[in-house]
Design a protein that fits this description.
There is one protein chain. With 97 residues, this protein is an alpha+beta fold. The chain has a single domain, classed as Alpha-Beta Plaits (2-Layer Sandwich). It contains 4 helices and 4 strands.
Length: 97
């Protein structure tokens, strides 16, 4: 069953954040993940306006998403965002077919 990683970031230093962005696609792909949304235009339909950069990644399973997050390759990328963005990252199980 697929799982969806939802990533929200308030980026404070865009130039520094680019170094993080350059390192994540290969790490995501290594665990079968693919971007469904990557910081495109966001429209709030209800509630407080969304001001974060929103990214959605589909993984083959919740275990694959966890393995990505716990991987050495992703752990090496994390310091590149630590001081330039505040992040919330959650994973939710998808609906099986």
């Amino acid at each position: 069953m697929p799982a969806y990683l939802i990533y929200r970031a308030h980026v404070h230093e865009a130039e520094a954040y680019r170094a993080y962005m350059a390192r994540t696609p290969d790490a995501i792909a290594a665990f079968g993940g693919r971007f469904l949304a990557r910081g495109g235009e966001t429209v709030t339909l209800e509630g407080a306006p969304e001001t974060a950069r929103v990214i959605i990644v589909e993984f083959p399973s919740l275990d694959a998403a966890r393995a990505f997050y716990d991987s050495d390759v992703y752990r090496e990328a994390m310091p590149f965002r630590r001081d330039c963005a505040d992040v919330q990252m959650v994973v939710v199980d998808g609906i099986g077919s």
